[in-house]
Design a protein that fits this description.
2,3-Dihydroxybiphenyl 1,2-Dioxygenase, domain 1; single chain; alpha+beta
Length: 135
């Protein structure tokens, strides 16, 4: 049976990574790492908070979903990510309940993490990412 384990991260779309980092670091958070994610394509800064993270996402292409989000809505919260167990079963259950998915099958990152997004139309305006770490 699928389960939600924890809030993994909150992603914030930003136009300028340096400016955004300055704000979060002024609050006392520290930058764990910054990665270029060619598959997205974006730069992502990871700021640990408790058992989760804040991720600052700066797109590197105007054609990405994050770039389109920034053009339409401006900077702000892009999505909420929940770590789950049983991602495939959960996606099947959501589809059976009429929940609109962006990814009907999980996408696998090079590190083995699998993820899928739920469309904001089905989540009251919030883009939700479901994230499953390898066993």
């Amino acid at each position: 049976m699928p389960t939600i384990k924890r809030l993994d991260h909150i992603a914030i779309a930003v136009n300028d990574l340096g400016d955004a980092l300055a704000f979060w670091e002024a609050l006392g958070l520290h930058t764990d790492r910054i990665e270029e994610i060619p598959a997205e394509p974006a730069y992502v800064a990871f700021l640990p908070v408790g058992d989760g993270e804040i991720e600052l996402v700066k797109p590197t292409s105007d054609t990405t979903g994050t770039a389109k989000f920034l053009a339409k809505r401006g900077e702000g919260m892009h999505h909420v990510c929940l770590e789950v167990e049983g991602l495939d079963e959960l996606l099947t259950q959501l589809q059976a309940k009429g929940i609109q998915l962006i990814n009907e099958t999980p996408v696998t990152k090079p590190n083995g993490v699998r993820y899928a997004f739920i469309h904001p139309k089905s989540a009251h305006g919030v883009l939700v990412e479901l994230y499953e770490k390898p066993a």
